[in-house]
C-alpha cells in the first residue's frame, strides 16, 4: 500500500515536472494493423516504422506489432534498422533508403535487408554477398526519387545478378495514392505489373497506407503501411476507418481575463474584440506543436473547442477559454485527441498529419498504453 502510494506520488511529481503528456495507444496501433491485414487476406501486411515509428516510439511500437503477428518491417536508415533489429530479433527488416557506399558489412552484421535503388547498389550488394543475403529491388514508376527506371529493371530480367544479390522482393512507391482519381495511380500500376511479369518468382510490394485502399490489384504480396497504423486517414475526405493512436495534453498554467482591445502574445497578433477569458498552456513549438498553427489551431478544454490566440511561443500557447467553464490552473487542454485528430491538426498548421506525428517532441512525459 505504502509503496503503491509513493509510486503514485512519484508519477504525479514526474508529471508536474513536465509541461505536457503524450499518450500512445498501442492497442490502437495493433488494431489498425489487424484491420488492414484482415482487409487484404491475400497479402502479407508489413509495417513501416521509420522516424521512430512516426514519432510514436519504436521501442514500444515494434514489439507490439510483432506480438500482433507482423513479421516484416521497413525503416529508412541503417541506424533505425539496427535499433529495430535489437527489438525484433527474428523479423525481416528492410531499409528503404538503400545501401550506402561500403555499407554491406554493417547490413549483414545485423541481418538487415537493403532496398536496392540503383544498378550501382545492386552490383555492390551482389559483390559483397557470398551467400545471397536477402534484399529488395526498388523500381521507380514515377516518383523519380529512388529506384531503377522501369526499362533498366526490365533489362535485368533473367540476369544472374538478381539471384546473386539475394533479391526476394520487388517494390515501387505510389506518387498520389491518397488521390484515387489521379491517373498516375493506373499508370504506375501498369508499369509495376510489367516489372512483376519480368520477375515472376519475386514477391511484389506497391501499397503504402493509401495504396491499400486503391483497387485490390494494387496490393500485390506485401503491404507497406505507415501513417494509417498511427491513426492517419488513408482516404482523405472520407470517414477515417483507423483508430486514433496519439493523445497530446498540456497543463493549464494560468487563466486570466482581458478587456476588449487588449492583445496577447509576441507581436500582438491577436486583439480581443470583446472581454475574453484566456488560458496559458505549458506547451509550445519547442515541443513539436507547429508554430504555423498560430491563430488557426485549437485545443479542447472540458470538451469545448477553444481557439489558439496569436503567435505560438517556444514553451507556451494562449487559448481562448471564454466558453470553457472548466478551464482552471492545473487543468488539462487536449491538443491532439478526440475531434482534434492528426489530420485536422495538420490542416490547421498548413501541413499534413505525417509532419505532426514525426515532429512530436521528447519534452513530454511519454506513456504507452496497451
Ligand atoms: C514511408 C514509406 C511508406 C509508408 O507510407 P505511408 O503513407 O506512411 O503509409 C511506404 N513505402 C515507402 C517507400 C515509404 O518511403
Descriptors:
370 residues; alpha/beta; 8-stranded mixed beta sheet; 8-stranded parallel beta sheet; 12 helices; 29% helix; 24% strand; elongated; binds pyridoxal-5'-phosphate; pyridoxal phosphate; Ala_racemase_N; Ala_racemase; Ala_racemase_pyridoxalP-BS
Distance N to C terminus? 24 Å
User: Shape from CA axes?
Assistant: elongated
Structural class: alpha/beta
Query: Measured on Cα atoms, how large is the radius of gyration?
Result: 24 Å
By DSSP (H or I, 4+ residues per run), the number of helices equals 12
The unreliable regions are 1-6
Active site: 50, 266
EC number: 5.1.1.1
Pfam families: Ala_racemase_C, Ala_racemase_N
Keywords: Isomerase, Pyridoxal phosphate
Can you offer a commentary on this structure?
The longest helix has 16 residues, at 183-198. Helix 2 crosses helix 4 (58-68). The protein contains 12 helices and 20 strands. Helix 5 links the parallel strand 4 (72-75) and strand 5 (92-95). The chain has helices spanning 2-16, 26-39, 50-54, 58-68, 78-87, 104-109, 119-128, 150-154, 161-164, 183-198, 342-348, 353-358; strands spanning 20-25, 44-45, 47-48, 72-75, 92-95, 113-116, 135-140, 148-149, 167-171, 203-205, 222-223, 246-258, 263-264, 270-271, 276-281, 298-301, 304-309, 317-320, 332-336, 365-369. The strands form 4 sheets. Strands 1, 12, 15, 16, 17, 18, 19 and 20 form an 8-stranded mixed beta sheet that branches. The protein has 370 residues and is α/β, with parallel strands linked by helices. Bound molecules: pyridoxal-5'-phosphate. Residues 48, 50, 96, 173, 208-209, 224-227 line the site of pyridoxal-5'-phosphate.
Amino acid at each position: 500500500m505504502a509503496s503503491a502510494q509513493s509510486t503514485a506520488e512519484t508519477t504525479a511529481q514526474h508529471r508536474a515536472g513536465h509541461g505536457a503528456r503524450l499518450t500512445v495507444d498501442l492497442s490502437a496501433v495493433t488494431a489498425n494493423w489487424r484491420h488492414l491485414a484482415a482487409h487484404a487476406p491475400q497479402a502479407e501486411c508489413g509495417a513501416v516504422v521509420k522516424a521512430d515509428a512516426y514519432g510514436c516510439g519504436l521501442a514500444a511500437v515494434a514489439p507490439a506489432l510483432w506480438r500482433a503477428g507482423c513479421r516484416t518491417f521497413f525503416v529508412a536508415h541503417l541506424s533505425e534498422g539496427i535499433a529495430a533489429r535489437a527489438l525484433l530479433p527474428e523479423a525481416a527488416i528492410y531499409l528503404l533508403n538503400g545501401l550506402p557506399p561500403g555499407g554491406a558489412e554493417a547490413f549483414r552484421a545485423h541481418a538487415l535487408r537493403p532496398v536496392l535503388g540503383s544498378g550501382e547498389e545492386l552490383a555492390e550488394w551482389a559483390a559483397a554477398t557470398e551467400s545471397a543475403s536477402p534484399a529488395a529491388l526498388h523500381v521507380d514508376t514515377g516518383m523519380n526519387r529512388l529506384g531503377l527506371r522501369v526499362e533498366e529493371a526490365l533489362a535485368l530480367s533473367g540476369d544472374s545478378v538478381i539471384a546473386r544479390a539475394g533479391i526476394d522482393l520487388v517494390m515501387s512507391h505510389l506518387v498520389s495514392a491518397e488521390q484515387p482519381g489521379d491517373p498516375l495511380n493506373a499508370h504506375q500500376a501498369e508499369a509495376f505489373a510489367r516489372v512483376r511479369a519480368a520477375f515472376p518468382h519475386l514477391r511484389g510490394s506497391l501499397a503504402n497506407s493509401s495504396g491499400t485502399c486503391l483497387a485490390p490489384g494494387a496490393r500485390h504480396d506485401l503491404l507497406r503501411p505507415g501513417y494509417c497504423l498511427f491513426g492517419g486517414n488513408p482516404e482523405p475526405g472520407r470517414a477515417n476507418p483507423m483508430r486514433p493512436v496519439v493523445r497530446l495534453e498540456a497543463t493549464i498554467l494560468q487563466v486570466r481575463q482581458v478587456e476588449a482591445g487588449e492583445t496577447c502574445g509576441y507581436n500582438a497578433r491577436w486583439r480581443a474584440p470583446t472581454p475574453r477569458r484566456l488560458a496559458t498552456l505549458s506547451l509550445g513549438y519547442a515541443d513539436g506543436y507547429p508554430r504555423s498553427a498560430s491563430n488557426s489551431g485549437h485545443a479542447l478544454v472540458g470538451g469545448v473547442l477553444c481557439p489558439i490566440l496569436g503567435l505560438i511561443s517556444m514553451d507556451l500557447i494562449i487559448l481562448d477559454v471564454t466558453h470553457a467553464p472548466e478551464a482552471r490552473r492545473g487543468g488539462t487542454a487536449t491538443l491532439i485527441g478526440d475531434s482534434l485528430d492528426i489530420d485536422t491538426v495538420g490542416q490547421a498548421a498548413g501541413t499534413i498529419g505525417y509532419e505532426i506525428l514525426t515532429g512530436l517532441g521528447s519534452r513530454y512525459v511519454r506513456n504507452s498504453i496497451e
